[in-house]
Give the backbone structure.
Amino acid sequence: MAASAGYPPFQLGKPRFEQTSFYGRFRHFLDIIDPRTLFVTKSHLKEAVQLLEDYKHGTLPPGVTSKELWRAQKIKQAIIHPDTNETIFMPFRMSGYIPFGTPIVVGLLLPNQTLASTIFWQWLNQSHNACVNYANRNATKPSATSKFIQGYLGAVVSAVSIAVGLNVLIQRANQFTPATRLLIQRFVPFPAVASANICNVVLMRHAELEEGIDVLDGDGNIVGSSRIAAKHALLETALTRVVLPMPILVLPPIIMSLLEKSALLRSRPRMILPVQSFVCLAAFGLALPLAISLFPQMSEIETSRLEPEISGATTSKTVVYNKGL
């Protein structure tokens, strides 16, 4: 294997960037969410997977560089689920979260929402989130379709209830001027989405709490199934789902309330929607890697904190688990 400038020696299944620091995880997840991987063809994906298989079995063609191997692994990780080895449907990949999610965010933040439009955009957002959560779950244990349906319905009901409830309260608050009421309404999506995101993650992945998730030793061998590790995985994922909508649903209303007062947008009101779309895209592009970088995807936990049967089954002081995205 030939060396490559700017690339460390290749390690199969290991991140290219250091995962103990936030900056390292941030750079790693920028690779994971790179939208360019959406355009990788089936033949290119097959070549990337085959290259990694050749490396695994020691049959690499001469002249293959670390750069080529890291790129092959990036493609595989962006498209193929680590537990099922199945291709993730394009709109539900993390690399597709921003391109497919931005139009929904723009819809959530549209001013002067009616009851019907509020319900529609909250339903669409939670439908997309539910599918993304399911597609990127920890899949070391099989989960029933009924669990998916329960999680989906719970998330949609909670999001719509909170959003509609807050809108009704604001409309009935006579002490606010119409301008203030409109400004406050723009912030309604955040508490609705943040609360629903927690419900979405917990309900969609509740089976993991009951059955546990696989934990692995340093050599990648399965030590056992842990419900405590599952609880940590869900907590970490839920926290990222609260942090994620903060910049997306809080910054654009603030920025747009300032921009709409500018002479440019006052004289060209048709530009408001394109400008808002760009602001949402920029906020989304910043928020997603920041949020999912809070914790490593393969999280580490001390065996002494897990069930006795787990700590007694290995000599390793720590084990790792896939927390999901």
In short: The mean pLDDT is 82. The first strand starts at residue 213 and ends at 216.
